[in-house]
């Protein structure tokens, strides 16, 4: 299940991509399959060996580029030189990081002047309902819990303050919002609840089969109740950087 639209991200074979907060690697794998050189980074270590192994398996099977790896790291202190990456994906990460501004500044630092970043966060309305239904969902003592709710205006403001020019945006995964409302209603970690299990089977079926009916329904519902908000951004020139080419074909807001 992909949240980022790779056509809007303008990903090309050979691009060096950072998947920051990669988790299980869903976006890293797709970028790798499309010929990008990929570094998947996550603060947690548990899933990284499997991500690294699957990237190696894809390469051995003739899929992907000449670089696909996973590393452990802190998003507020990225272990990369300035202007390293052509593209950055930061999907469902910023709502977890206490010092979100530091993470965004680091992402701007390691992005090339002509690069692009896709940042995704939980959409405002679905997230507000989750917070109201469950304190555990956003409790600070829960590992991986959410620490803030974004509006699109706030995310754009934070991106601008970190040195980005936010542009195109969209919502995704409307059918996933009721699933999370249900989970929050019965307990976010209660995956064995019969209703949660039934809805999860529905989502798996939808992801694997992609029937036309549900694809149409999600397209209609996404602007209203899409679980994720995606904003694509170009960098503003930092001090000492040459401006990027003018024809960056990204609709940007001031």
Write the topology of this structure:
Layout: H1 6-9, E1 16-20, H2 26-33, E2 37-42, H3 48-60, E3 68-72, E4 85-91, H4 100-110, E5 111-122, H5 124-133, H6 152-161, E6 164-172, H7 176-186, H8 194-209, H9 212-225, E7 228-235
Parallel strand pairs: 1-2, 1-4, 2-3, 4-5
Antiparallel strand pairs: 5-7, 6-7
Brief digest:
The chain is α/β, with parallel strands linked by helices. It has helices at 6-9, 26-33, 48-60, 100-110, 124-133, 152-161, 176-186, 194-209, 212-225, and strands spanning 16-20, 37-42, 68-72, 85-91, 111-122, 164-172, 228-235.
Structural write-up:
Strand 1 (16-20), helix 2 (26-33) and strand 2 form a beta-alpha-beta unit. The chain has a single domain, classed as Rossmann fold, CATH 3.40.50. A seven-stranded mixed β-sheet has the order 3-2-1-4-5-7-6, with helices on both faces. It has nine helices and seven strands, in the order αβαβαββαβααβαααβ. The protein is of the alpha/beta class and 254 residues long. It has helices at 6-9, 26-33, 48-60, 100-110, 124-133, 152-161, 176-186, 194-209, 212-225; strands spanning 16-20, 37-42, 68-72, 85-91, 111-122, 164-172, 228-235. It is globular, with a radius of gyration of 18 Å. The protein starts with 5 loop residues before the first helix and ends in a 19-residue tail after the last strand. Helix 5 (124-133) runs parallel beside helix 7 (176-186) and helix 7 (176-186) runs antiparallel to helix 8 (194-209). One of its GO terms (molecular function) is S-adenosylmethionine-dependent methyltransferase activity. This is Class I SAM-dependent methyltransferase. Pfam families: Methyltransf_11. Keywords: Methyltransferase, Transferase. InterPro entries: Methyltransf_11 (IPR013216), SAM-dependent_MTases_sf (IPR029063).
